[in-house]
């Protein structure tokens, strides 16, 4: 999980440097009150998932964001950092038994991460068989050599709370033979968790996890916006199976894992309102991303602005660049996709495709690779972009 977290963090930072990833809800400081546009407030809520729980090889899976929810944290007096996103990873559909290849021990059947107001993260990871092998699950349930103490038994579950000084995290581990739920609470930054210290906070979370296990698996929690972002499709709906299949026709698979990022609130910067949401989709293959021969992924980020003019200005700015410290090169793509200019931005050693659809800026990047050429990346990303443009972004 640490390696995966570092990889995701580095990828986010690289794209953020280009100004095409992250979140900003921006209100101008320069507009006079009489001239300011009336913009509907953007709020994020969680809502129960639709339908039954998703199944992997016939086994219903627990959803990590349903184990500990935003409302439950608020009930404990713990708020989120408005400038950091909520990460939610889960299947996008049932995986039949013949396609339900076990993933690596580092992969979770579902994952949810919140950044709290004290800037420490709270992460929930769900591992289950057959998504994870029985041997991997049994090994992870032992906790390794760094976990001190003896688990206790409660209501048919094994449970232990412990502190890892090496990684500065407080842990809650709960399990039964076919299930392991890990809760990690960072302690890097000082400050209370609401009115609690970290151990008291972790103790308050224990009954929430036990209750979720007792309730049983549920459909993945939905992250629902009002206002500007409420009119745009979910980013994981935008990065659809059809778009993924266009770029990877031989690696689309029966279903996939999607990892959406959603930001809860606003900052007060810049000339216009903007909201950004994103999603990464990858296929289901034996051993997950350790299987370099078959594993494939695509990432989409949507910058949603007040109107098409604002989106066009941003699109023109990005695709009209020659270079800047965080962008090594900009290459026009013709014919263009969507309603504005289309270009490839080289950020570090990789390329991102940028285009516009109405009042939304769209950026797509592929899997991490060592120095891919611009032509290679264009051939990979343009088909997905065309599929996204054809399907549209508005609900």
Task: Write out key terms for the chains shown.
395 residues, 10 helices, globular
Briefly, what is this?
The protein is 25% helix and 27% strand. By secondary structure, it is α+β, with helices and mostly antiparallel strands.
Fold and architecture overview:
Strands 7-8-9-10-6-5-4-12-13-14-18-17-16-15 form a 14-stranded antiparallel beta sheet, with helices on both faces. The chain has a two-stranded antiparallel ribbon with strand order 1-11. The model is unreliable at 1-39 and 266-271 (pLDDT under 50). 25% of the residues lie in helices and 27% in strands. The protein is α+β, with helices and mostly antiparallel strands. It has ten helices and 18 strands. α8 (241-247) runs antiparallel to α10 (374-391).
User: How large, in whole angstroms, is the Cα Rg?
Assistant: 21 Å
Low-confidence stretches: 1-39, 266-271
Mean pLDDT, nearest integer? 86
What is the overall silhouette?
A: globular
From the helix content, strand content and strand pairing, which structural class follows?
Answer: alpha+beta
**Element string (H = helix, E = strand):** HEEEHHEEEHEEEEHEHHHEEEHEEEEH
Measured between the Cα atoms of the first and last residue, the distance is 34 Å
Q: Helicity range of the residues? A: 10-25%
Please tally the β strands and state the result. Answer: 18
How large a portion of the residues is in β-strands, by DSSP E? Answer: 25-35%
Q: Count of helical segments?
A: 10
Secondary structure elements and their pairing?
Blueprint: H1 2-17, E1 44-47, E2 55-56, E3 59-60, H2 64-67, H3 70-75, E4 86-91, E5 110-115, E6 121-128, H4 134-142, E7 152-154, E8 157-164, E9 169-176, E10 179-186, H5 198-215, E11 222-225, H6 227-230, H7 235-238, H8 241-247, E12 256-262, E13 274-283, E14 297-305, H9 308-319, E15 329-332, E16 343-347, E17 350-357, E18 360-365, H10 374-391
Antiparallel strand pairs: 1-11, 2-3, 4-5, 4-12, 5-6, 6-10, 7-8, 8-9, 9-10, 12-13, 13-14, 14-18, 15-16, 16-17, 17-18
């Amino acid at each position: 999980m640490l390696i995966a977290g570092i990889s995701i963090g580095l990828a986010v930072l690289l794209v953020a440097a280009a100004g095409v990833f992250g979140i900003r809800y921006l209100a101008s400081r320069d507009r006079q009150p009489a001239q300011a546009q009336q913009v509907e407030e953007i709020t994020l809520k969680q809502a129960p998932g639709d339908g039954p729980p998703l199944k992997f090889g016939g086994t219903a899976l627990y959803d990590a964001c349903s184990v500990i929810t935003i409302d439950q944290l608020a009930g404990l007096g713990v708020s989120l950092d408005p400038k950091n996103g909520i990460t939610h990873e889960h299947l996008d559909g049932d995986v039949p038994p013949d396609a339900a290849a076990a993933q690596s021990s580092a992969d979770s059947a579902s994952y949810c991460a919140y950044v709290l107001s004290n800037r420490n993260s709270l992460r929930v990871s769900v591992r289950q068989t057959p998504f994870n092998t029985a041997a991997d699950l049994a090994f992870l349930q032992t906790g390794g050599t760094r976990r001190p103490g003896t688990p206790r038994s409660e209501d048919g579950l094994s449970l232990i709370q412990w502190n890892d000084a090496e990684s500065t995290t407080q842990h809650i581990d709960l399990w039964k033979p076919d299930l392991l739920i890990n809760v990690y609470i960072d302690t890097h930054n000082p400050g209370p968790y609401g009115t609690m210290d970290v151990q008291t906070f972790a103790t308050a979370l224990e009954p929430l996890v036990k209750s979720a296990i007792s309730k049983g698996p549920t459909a993945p929690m939905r992250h629902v916006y009002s206002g500007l972002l409420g009119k745009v499709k979910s980013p994981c709906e935008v990065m659809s199976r059809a778009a993924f299949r266009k770029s990877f026709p031989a690696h689309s698979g029966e279903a996939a894992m999607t990892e959406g990022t959603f930001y809860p609130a606003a900052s007060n910067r810049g000339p216009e309102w903007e909201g950004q949401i994103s999603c990464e989709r990858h296929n289901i293959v034996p051993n997950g991303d350790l299987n370099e021969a078959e594993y494939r992924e695509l990432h989409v980020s949507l910058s949603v602005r007040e109107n098409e003019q604002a989106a066009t200005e941003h699109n023109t700015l990005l695709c009209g660049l020659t270079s800047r410290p965080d962008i090594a090169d900009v290459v026009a793509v013709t014919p263009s996709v969507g309603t504005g200019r289309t270009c490839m931005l080289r950020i570090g050693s990789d390329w991102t495709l940028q285009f516009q659809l109405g009042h939304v800026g769209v950026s797509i990047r592929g899997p991490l690779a060592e120095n891919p050429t611009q032509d290679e990346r264009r051939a990979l990303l343009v088909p997905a972009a065309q599929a996204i443009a054809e399907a549209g972004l508005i609900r």
